Predict the structure.
Amino acid sequence: MRESNSIKVSAVVTDKDKSGAVYITEKDFVPESPSLTIKAIGSELQYSDMAAEVVFENPLSESLRDCFITVTGSGLLTETMEARTPLLKQGHRLRVKMPFTPYRPGPKKLVAGFNCDQFRDIKASCNVYIKPFTSVVPPLP
């Protein structure tokens, strides 16, 4: 599934009741990507502490290996954050909270990515509006 993200199914059928004709068909399909969610937690204020909460659930009937989640966001994070887990068992959920401090106000987008031995480039995003920091300075006497 990693290489082309599609699966080819082929079927060969022989009509034994009638003419003995052979029918062949092929179909390519792309399975749905597993669910990955991301949300911003905390006060959406410039220079305030926030966190990105990312959740991924293993939909397969086998364990996933070498899993990692990345989180990026221009004006939100100064560098890409990464969390790794060597094994995610079948049906188990991975929930990660990554702290960050937004440094630029305005509309922003948090983007999460999930990769492992079975899946590549699973993406999710959420929009965040960061309010500008305003300091209140009392007037001089």
User: Anything to note?
Assistant: The domain at 33-130 is CATH 2.60.40.10 (Immunoglobulin-like). The chain has a mean pLDDT of 89. The longest strand covers residues 106-115.
